[in-house]
Each structure stands twice: as C-alpha cells, then as structure tokens.
Amino acid sequence: MKNKSNAEDKHSIVLQILKDRQKKVIATGLLVKKIFWDEKEHCFKTRHPNSMQNNRLLDTIKIKARNIISEFEIDDIDFTLNEFENRFRFGSKRSKINLFEFWNSVVRDLELSGRMGYARTNRDTINSLKIFHNRPVLYMREINTTFLDKYEVFLRSRGGSNGGISVRMRSIRTIFNLAIRRDLIKQNLYPFHKYKISKLRGKRIKHALTISEVESFKNVDCKEDIQLIHAKNYFLFSFYTRGMNFADMMRLKWSDISKKRITYARAKTQGNFSIKILPPVKEILNFYNQNRTDTNYVFPILLYEGMTPIQIENRKHKTLGHYNKSLKILAKKAGIAKNVTSYVARHSFAMCLREKGIGIDVIGETLGHKSVLTTKAYVREFGIEVLDEAVEVLLW
C-alpha cells in the first residue's frame, strides 16, 4: 500500500517486485482506506464491504506474478524488472498491444510519481484518440501514416491548431518510443519515420514585452485589488528571476531564499538555479513576508503543506486561470495591446536582455536552455557573476 493517500483519503494498492536490489512498483487499480487494510497480511480486512472479492483479485495478481517469474526461470532468462512488467501487463504477444491499455498504465505510473500535469496531457490525448477511433480497442500495429494523417484531419475539423496537433502527435510518438524501448513492439511498426511532426511547426508569435512596456506594466495602479496585486507581483517576480515559471514559483519556499540569492531546482528540467535577488524581487519578497501565510511557501498559491499531487495540480490549474485573466486586465490598464499570459514574462525577459545587447549564448544560459548545443558550447565560459550582471542590465 502506498503511503500517500488521495483526496478521499484512500491509498493505492500496488504490486512491488524486488530484484538485484532494485524494485518495480505496479499499480493494481485498487484503492483502500487505511482502516480497512491489514498491514501484516497485506490484504483487505474482513470488515471491508468488498473484502472477499478484492482479496481474491489480489491472490490472482500474486499468482500471475509468481507464474511469470517461474516462466523466466524455466527459460533460463535473467529478466529485468521492465521485462517483468511488460509480460505482467501485456503478456508475450507483441503483435496485439492495445494502445489504450498500455497508455493508461503509463499514465497511472505518472500519477503515482506525482507528475500530474504530464499525466493530464496524456489523458487528454487518449480521450481524443478514443473519440476519433470510436472503438474501445486500438492496436498499436493499426497506427500508421494514413491513420495519423486522418487523425490530423479530425483534429483540424474540431478547430485544432498546428501547436495543439503537435502536442497530440508528440504524445503518441513518446508512447511508441516507450513501447519499443520496452520491447513491446518492433521498430518496423514505428509510424513516425514517415509522418513528420516537424511539418506542424509554424512561426509562433511570442508576445514578449519590450523594456518600455515592462515599465508601463510596473506602473499600473492596482487600486488595492488583491487579485491584480498578486498577478502583477507574480509577473514581475518571474521577469526579474530569469523567467521563473509559474509551477516553480508556486513551490518556492522561504527556505530557498537567503539574503542575496534564490536557489531552486526547476520542476520541468530539474536544472539547478542560483539567482541574485534584485531590488524589484526584494520588494516583492518583502510584501509576501509581511503577509506571510501559515505555510513555508513564499506565494499564497498552495494553501497548506502536504497537499497531494492531484490537489497541487488542481490548485495550480485554478490559480493560473485567475492569474492569466488578471494579466489581461493589467495589460489593458498599461496600454499594452499584446496577449499577456504567465509565460510572456519568460519571453519578455529574454527579449529585453537581447534589447540591451546581451548575447544569445548568455541569454540561453540564464534561461537554462541546456538542450541547445550552441548554448552548451558556451556555458563553460561563463561564471555565475556574468549571469548576474546580464540580468542586472534590466535595471539600467
């Protein structure tokens, strides 16, 4: 049983396999409140309303796991945990892998690991494919270039843009790559050799603010409207902290802040950042320090410590919606005609540095663009002082 519970105070029952000091956790789909679980016997207590049925299912799962291990031993195969998981979930018939079944198992693992935003994106694509396919089973061998072309037409008929369609196709491609890596399907079934997602890349309009527009934004009078005050603070905080995104701001704690620096790991890439606290950032921090909540979080977004991943994702989704609505009001007040959203702060930071004459290589490093080969070639050239100085030009 997993230690963390969901919003209904129920815990996930998982199958745990240990081998060579490594472990694999597989969700069974069963949930139980702690009072109904026998920790010693690893089964449902008799007073649980469906104890007999659920315990039979647990016995079936255990027997299946033991049989798979026995099959590997009989065949003299020194199996990996991933190989065990593949056979447990899908058997040994690689030609009949149901995409929906495999994908749902991946999403459940994402949810167990707390990656709720990524899980939601995948679930959205699964649901979209189910509507398009209109059948409960979709074998991975059925997905070829023609299938993807027709799915693209379907998405466009429902108002899909190149960007939205690209997200769907990348999700499908990721699942195919995962299935191939786990030896569930053969490489020749991979449809993205011919179907190119790159064709969907259009010229995205990035609504970055200029330096003068940022100044106009800073000077907006919020008239004690707390929603507008928060939105203005969040945007400027992001702008002056190298484009810190909303998810990282949401999780930022007072323990991440010293007198002169903010140190945190970006949730998306796990890259470590150490950022000098500039005067505008210090002013915002002072505001929230004076209005401190009962939590260790800097910003009043997460309401209490120990929120579950689902609760955090829901809170993020709700607050981000209010934030973006408030940004549109602030932009209008500032006389800015651009579509200002939370992510515009990051684009604006980069564009304003460029406007000040800072080189692309330094900008890439301040943003943490480690995947850009050109940037990576220059990273070693710059110390932390150079990056601090690059951001400080925004105050000139």
TrEMBL record:
Domain Tyr recombinase intervals: 204-392
Q: Does the keyword DNA-binding apply?
A: yes
Look up keyword Cell inner membrane and say if it applies.
Answer: no
Q: Coiled coil: which residue ranges?
A: none
Gene3D superfamilies, alphabetically? Answer: 1.10.150.130, Intergrase catalytic core (1.10.443.10)
Q: Which domain of life is it from?
A: Bacteria
Which Pfam families does the record match to this protein?
Arm-DNA-bind_5 (PF17293), Phage_int_SAM_5 (PF13102), Phage_integrase (PF00589)
Instruction: Write the record's keywords in alphabetical order, separated by commas.
Output: DNA recombination, DNA-binding
Task: Please state which protein family the record places this protein in.
Answer: Belongs to the 'phage' integrase family.
Protein name as catalogued:
Site-specific integrase
